[in-house]
Predict the structure.
Amino acid sequence: MLYTPSIHARRKEALTIRYRMWIKGHLDPSWQEWFEDLQIAPHGPDTTALYGSLVDQAALYRVLLKIRSLGLVLLSLEADEFPSTQEEQ
């Protein structure tokens, strides 16, 4: 996309990023506050899914650091971007 100052001056572009992570083992829903705004759900016989939107990439790194600090095994991570545009007033 070609950068055009007049277009970017009128619009504020933002991305909503939804994440899905799979962790080996089962996490109790009481761990919810440890994982920012991600939802915790059992997925299969020995897997937990974490899913939802995070405010920024720093929040993603905090979640990944907590997974590592707790000694959990991250099986998979997926991210989907959804562009949204708001007119500035």
User: Anything to note?
Assistant: The longest helix spans residues 57-69. The beta strands are 11-24, 39-42, 47-53, 74-87. The radius of gyration is 17 Å. The chain has two helices and four strands.
